[in-house]
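REQUEST FORM: STRUCTURE PREDICTION
Request ID: SP-0412
Submitted by: Lab K.M.
Chain count: 1
Length (residues): 186
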Amino acid sequence: MPIDAQDARAAMQSAELIFSREEVEAALDRMAGEITRRLGDADPLVLVAMNGGLVPAGLLLPRLEFPLRLDYLHATRYRERTFGSELEWKRAPEESLEGRTLLIIDDILDEGHTLEAILEHCRQAGAREVLSAVLVHKVHPRSNGLEADFTGVKAPDRYLFGYGMDYRGYWRNAPGIYAIDEALLQ
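STATUS: Completed
RESULT:
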């Protein structure tokens, strides 16, 4: 069900702050250090998973202290809904993945199906090594067991938005990570 900006503002007013801007920025600093130590000499190709990975990547990339190449891909299961469905590929990377070390940056690891499909696509395209970085790992029993190589924060099993994650297309730009009021998901 589509919403407008007024609905989005109302959702923000009833949302609960889960991670503040300061907590997220500290997580990004920590992730950048881990990624730099692991990939600093690897000449990696960084792939941003759109649209959610745009904000985390934009904040993470300037913190990485090594040369890298950048591209993006777009695969989605949500399409601005609050539940997932079949994976739809909108854009594969343009750069060749053959023999490359890759870092996939995304906003959230929820059940793991989308990220798993992206990682498998990259492996089948001939990547030598495929690593993943997610800002948020949502902890719950529905997960397929996938773990990202680099994780910012572990979050409760709530519908989250902010720092790249959206609520029905809005608030990817929220200055913190928020949980939507469950009544709005009914």
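NOTES: The chain has one domain: 20-157.
Reviewed by: T.R.
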